[in-house]
Amino acid sequence: MEPVLRAWGANSYGQLGLGHKEDVLVPQSLKDVSCKRRDIKNITGGGGHSAVITGAGELFVCGHNKEGQLGLNHTEDVLRFTLCTALSGFCVQEVACGWDFTIILAGDGLVLSCGSNAFGQLGVPQISGPCLIPQKIESLKEKAVGIAAGLRHALAATESGLVFQWGTGMASRAKRAHQGKTLPLFLTAKEPCEIKGLEDVKVKRVAAGSYHCVSLTDEGHLYVWGSNKHGQLVSEEVFLVEPKKIDAQFFSHEKIGAVWSGWTHLVAQTGGCCFSWGWNEHGMCGDGTEANVRVPKPVKALGYAKQILIGCGAGHSLALCQTSR
After folding, report:
1. Contact 283/269 with Cβ under 8 angstroms?
2. Residue 49 CB neighbours (<10 A)
3. Taking Cα atoms as reference points, which of 108, 6, 93 lies closest to residue 54?
4. Buried-exposed string 220-253: b where 16+ CB fall within 10 A, e elsewhere
5. Per residue in 116-144, pLDDT tens?
6. Helix, strand or coil for residue 213?
7. CA Rg value for the chain
8. Residue 309's pLDDT is what?
9. pLDDT tens-digit series, residues 95-116
10. Tell me, what's the pLDDT at 39?
11. How far apart are the C-alpha atoms of 274 and 204, rounded to whole Å?
């Protein structure tokens, strides 16, 4: 049976790829999809745009395009998934969608970006206006293995285990929380700047929320920095200007295999459990309440089913599970 691509939710810019701009309350199948549905490798979304990667490394995009975030060399909204032909010479491995920009990881560890650069979130400071075609981030000299996009900042994890950050979207909150103090350069950089405080670990994955960042090391530990407004960084500080390790005791000393971030909540997966914490107003931490979760808690409703894949939106969470039945 051929897989079916379905979409639902906010659709003000055509980001569902259904050919119109009406919100959709119940999942609808995308019947006219130019990419082969059975060949889809990854799906993700941003402030108002969506992206699909095929097994062949092609990138299809739709939705909001006012800042050129779809990389199609124009600024008109696109109502159906459309091939980004500007990337025809690249094999796309991963894509991260911010509020109004897109970060792309291609083969050979190259990182490209397009869309708004008002906060330096493209990592290419010489571009002043919107970038309509994906551009290589030339100053990122190391090969990347992972990328992430926040509201107006971005991250890249490299082959050697380093993490680079760019975009000034977190800077104003950092300044308010640490008035009069000098901020680390990576919080105000408009091109990739190495994160300080991770020199003794090797990072393999990164994730980003609206105003925070997360790194997962090869030893299964989490390091976090940025805004802690809703307790998503497991700290007493309002804003962490440098990476802080989350104590392994919160995860029953189990090694973390993967991590995902919504705008203000986090989900981590270990070998035997799924943990979540942070903003919980809409119940996205899955603990049965709407109170913020200040320390990681197991999502008991998932039981001990094997979580194959987790997804986080601004205020919701999803888990694809495989039971023993």
Report:
1. no
2. 28
3. 93
4. bbbbbbbbbbbbbbbeeeebbbebbebeeeebee
5. 999 999 999 999 889 999 999 999 999 99
6. strand
7. 19
8. 65
9. 999 999 999 999 999 999 999 9
10. 83
11. 19
Q: SS3 sequence, 93-147?
A: EEEEECCCEEEEEEHHHCEEEEECCCCCCCCCCCCCCCEEEEEECCCCCCCEEEE
Other beta carbons within 10 Å of 303: 12
Residue 31, token pair as written in the block: 């019947």
Helix (H, G, I), strand (E, B) or coil at 53: strand
pTM (2 d.p.): 0.93
Give pLDDT, residue 86.
Answer: 98
Instruction: Determine the topology of domain 1-138 in CATH.
Output: Methylamine Dehydrogenase; Chain H (2.130.10)
In the chain, the N- to C-terminal Cα span, in Å, equals: 21
Question: Is the CB of residue 60 less than 8 Å from the CB of residue 83?
Answer: yes
Q: Which of 316, 320, 324 is nearest to 290 (CA)?
A: 316
* Tokens read off for 33: 């999809």
Low-confidence ranges of the chain (pLDDT < 70): 1-3, 32, 36-38, 303-309, 316, 318, 320-325
How is residue 262 written in tokens? Answer: 């919504």
Q: Write phi, then psi, for 306 (nearest 5 degrees).
A: -75, 115
Task: Tell me the Ramachandran region of residue 57: left when phi exceeds 0, alpha when psi lies from -120 to 50, beta otherwise.
Answer: left
State pLDDT tens for residues 162-171: 999 999 999 9
Say if CB 277 and CB 265 are below 8 A apart. Answer: yes
Residue 277's alpha-carbon distances to 18, 28, 155, 293, in angstroms, are 33, 30, 21, 5
Q: Residue holding tokens 């090797």?
A: 202
